Amino acid sequence: MKIKSILVSQPPPNESSPYMEIAKKEKIKIDFKPFIHVEGVEAKELRTQKIDLGQYTGIIFTSKNAVDHYFRLAEEMRFTVPDSMRYICQSEAIANYLQKHIVYRKRKISFGEKTFADLLPLFKKFPTEKYLLPSSDMLSPDILKILETANIEWTRATMYRTVSSDLSGVNIKDYDMLVFFSPQGIRSLGKNFEDFVQNDTKIAVFGATTEQAATDAGLRVDVMAPSKETPSMTMAIEKYIRNLAK
Fold first, then answer.
1. pLDDT, tens digit, for every residue of 6-17?
2. Are 179 and 237 in contact, with CB atoms under 8 Å apart?
3. What is the pTM of this model?
């Protein structure tokens, strides 16, 4: 079966995206539609979690969403974030993103290489802070495990939620391949298209947790990334399409 149309469950990328190159090279249609989106919790809900922002001397940021919603709620609760606050960011990109909300110079900002485990040396270096972890309602179990071994005082605060988007304007049968990047995306497929039957539709997934969610939902995974040969989703899709053409 030739792949003529693909639906990627993410927002549209820029024009220089590898997806655009695939569409042009392979003469296929690629559409983009976010299957999930983020909604912030209100200040009153944060209070029900017994979170007092003034109690913490350090913040652990794992995403740009966490940064945005922490400062949004701080403003709503009329809490002025002190200049003495210590920021521990999972990556340099997240640390740089802080400039959207604070004057970066002379602030106590540290960051890891990429994964949450990379932050362990920083926790060891700054063990006496009282840390707040702003997060989504969905948090990787690996993060919780690492924090349990970090020997620091920390509290999780759910500041935003990942929810299914309304996909009523999408005809899922128009696509030969569906591309997913998170378990929540798989759940959104089930919620929006309760009568969906896979049949010849190809399912592409990124990451082991997404693959597991697809399998648990009774779906057949046809394309998997990352791998040594195909570290990106676009590379995995292109390889699959070329193999079909052989």
1. 999 999 988 889
2. yes
3. 0.80
